[in-house]
Design brief:
Strand content: 15-25%
Radius of gyration: 22 Å
Structural class: alpha/beta
Order of helices and strands: HHEEHEHHEHHEH
Number of strands: 5
CATH topology of the domain at 16-119 and 145-192 and 230-261: Rossmann fold
Largest sheet: 5 strands, mixed
Amino acid sequence: MVNPSTSDSPVKVFESYARKRALNRAESIDGDFGFLRKHAAENIEDRRQDIKRTLKDMLMLQPAHWDNEIEALDVEGQNFDLITSVLDLHAVNDLPGLLLQIRQRLKPDGLFLGAMFGGETLHQLRTTLMQTEIDLKNGVSPRVFPFADKQQMGALLQRAGYALPVIDSEIVTVTYDNMFKLMHDLRGMGETNIIAERSRKNPGKEFFMKAAEHYQKNFADADGRIEATFEIIYLIGWAPDESQQKPLKPGSAEKRLSDALNTDEIKTGDKP
């Protein structure tokens, strides 16, 4: 759901006004749709608790903190010891730029903790809609967000100037009675299609019925419930500071690895 582009002029993958509209509509839908956000927030808090230092000035970053059109961070006040973001960075066009802005609002040795959807998210739905459209229309329109993976996010944190970046992820599998129940949850989360190049035409009832059959046939568990995968990538990065640990310079180690392993050292070119 992110644009992992490293271009200085990122392509407008997402329509910002459509994102705002989707979130506003989600507020009017009855139901408990915040289970993934709550789960990710709890894991972010666990990571924060692992930090054995006092973090006084903290900010929980939300879409309201940046301009939807130019994605410029709009946060009043001083810089922060900790900035967190929970499942809100996946629909950002200039993600490298926003990550840089976040880092610039951290105090020296300040911490950024983020959670975002990753590349495996909704792969079943993406495959289903793509195959159904090929079968019925001999073409494909983008209907599920493009997602970044862990390697891309690690590179983006480094590019944005974070020190000591750490990336990990988890897979959360949610089951539903059918594809329509999944799509209802996605609307309630505000995660509808906002891709700029999406088709504006309603694909019709036949399309969705065929897609539901395909999903049921190919991605149901032993109980007949369809599975929906959500990958959550967790991001940890620090604002650079002189007090942070630095990697040793090449050749500066005081002991050889062969001594630690109790083996004989073989130089390059020597036969074992």
